[in-house]
Amino acid sequence: MKKERATIHDISKALGIDSSTVSRALNDSPRVSQKTKGLIIKKAKELGYQRNSLASNLRTNKTHTIAVVIPRISRYFFSTVIAGIEETAHEAGYNVLICQSLDSIDREKKIMSTLISNRVDGIIISISMETTDYKHLEAYQSLEKPIIFFDRPCFLKNCSNITIDNVHASFMATEHLISQGCTRIAHLSGSQKIELYRQRQKGYMAALKKHNLEANAKHIFESGLSEEDGMASAKKILELKGIDGVVSANDTAAISAMKYFKTQGVKVPEDIAVVGFNNDPISAIIEPSLTTIHQPAFEIGKMASRTLLEQMTDNLKEQQISSTLLDSELIIRSSSQKK
Amino acid sequence: MKKERATIHDISKALGIDSSTVSRALNDSPRVSQKTKGLIIKKAKELGYQRNSLASNLRTNKTHTIAVVIPRISRYFFSTVIAGIEETAHEAGYNVLICQSLDSIDREKKIMSTLISNRVDGIIISISMETTDYKHLEAYQSLEKPIIFFDRPCFLKNCSNITIDNVHASFMATEHLISQGCTRIAHLSGSQKIELYRQRQKGYMAALKKHNLEANAKHIFESGLSEEDGMASAKKILELKGIDGVVSANDTAAISAMKYFKTQGVKVPEDIAVVGFNNDPISAIIEPSLTTIHQPAFEIGKMASRTLLEQMTDNLKEQQISSTLLDSELIIRSSSQKK
DNA sequence: CTGTTAGCGCGTTCAC
DNA sequence: GTGAACGCGCTAACAG
């Protein structure tokens, strides 16, 4: 019952041709005549030969596999990015390995370690919320293999970033609230150790400044942006009194803040308008009135994959390092125009 | 700049211990003393050693990788299943390779071929809509490695299935409409070559029979269940006159049928109530009134992964072949009670 | 408990 | 254009 798999040696013996020639033929080397190539390929099919990539990988130190490291695959944004990555990678003959960090630095470190062991040819990653130093990423880089960051920017040496223009997006979001008549706008911000949240806060500040609104440090609530954080910040916002708009650096906090406002009898968006980032279809069900920044997930995935493929195949790495900013879009589901 | 990676030989030389002992120590074999183990592990860290899985894989013919083959990752159902698979697999030290068939048999065949080349240790698959014969799957089986089917049942020899009880779910859906007062219920059915759709049709028929409703072949619309198919079937349903309920074998067709009904001034669910299968958050946005069968995606993923892991590690394959039916749930978002 | 031997299946030198 | 020989890094099998 146990079928032994055919190897190049089997077809070498069957044909009386050396196995090295068989190998070359199967790799379509130009150094083998069309005649013998034909013969070999025919015999290969006949024997049901399937290349053993394991052996090939060991020899060439390439796996034709790229890894995607993300916080959570079931978030619509990330699964859509992966769809984009997969499409591009698949066309180029690459496999895609999925790894979830669950926003834990420990898991991310473990993942990097197995990716090094497995010698994946490249990595596309949205770093975990807890990631503030990059030794585990640099260890991978020392294999001379490329890393691409997306969604959450990271200016590691020799790495490309594929993100939206977060400063601009946050600016747009804030300006939208101002155009709706908001004058005292709070910001649910994330840790300022994280570049992403620095950028989003920067955009918020810039919009206030442009419109001559007071930038009050008390209006900025830095937190982990979890559901509980959103609740807690919302509570503080109400205690402050007079806040009429909120720009949240993510959707989780935005939605839980909105929930809290409602439980306190505060109307959204009439009394306080809220803008969030990057929200899923599912948050649209929970809070249909949330205005949000939409990221072009599929395009981000394709671009990340394309960039990675380039860096894997060419040797001119140095020149190619880039930061690509894709367009985002403000999606307005309900008006909050102040009288 | 190019750092050479340390191998077991480097740490073997550095310590004057044979490389095979080093290998055993690093694999935590009980046949190495704690003392030397400690020494070796310490030295390994010192040299920044990271196992080369490629070599290990070649030797053991195992990859510690399982593949998930699905139609589309960006569908919420599938990405959630993957989350479940990943959780279980990761705990057990396995990697997860993602492959999208895009419901194309040709792509599925290619995928199977590369999975054979890559010697993944097991496969979890929801077969494509176009898959009606299974040679490409049997080729993989001949490597003596297990395949688990989920979502779309497939009774290939020696393979386990993890699905909901489709007959029962479809029965529930149909009975729900009957309880709402529907008496002429149509069925948007899929190809009867596909087991999944046979089962769903069976449940529909059974419910009609139980409640002494006429089972009319004209009320069954077999199609590819695409958006266009949904439209076309909806049109035919209206031409039939008198239909007051529709059980659709998937959500895509259900939603497009509902859309068509509305364009024709038919009220949903008042005039015609519709029940779909397996719908995403996103379809709930498009059609908030759609009643639907909900599958426990995360649980399905965990169960599939667990079953696969068992079959990969044990040798008693024969005994373990099983069909696991997980519970599904009817989610009712709006009443369609007939007067 | 540890060392020795012998490959896993392929790709890459070299020769010719 | 083709063949012979070697080795990628690791581990199974067998000694001792």
UniProtKB/TrEMBL annotation, chains A, B:
Annotated keywords: DNA-binding, Transcription, Transcription regulation
PROSITE patterns from the UniProt entry: HTH_LACI_2
SMART domains, per the entry: HTH_LACI (SM00354)
Domain of life of the organism encoding this protein: Bacteria
GO function terms (MF aspect): DNA binding
Keyword Chloroplast belongs to the record: no
UniProt xrefs under Pfam families: LacI, Peripla_BP_3
Domain HTH lacI-type: 6-60
Name of this protein: LacI family DNA-binding transcriptional regulator
Organism field: Mariniflexile ostreae
Lineage start: Bacteria, Pseudomonadati, Bacteroidota, Flavobacteriia, Flavobacteriales
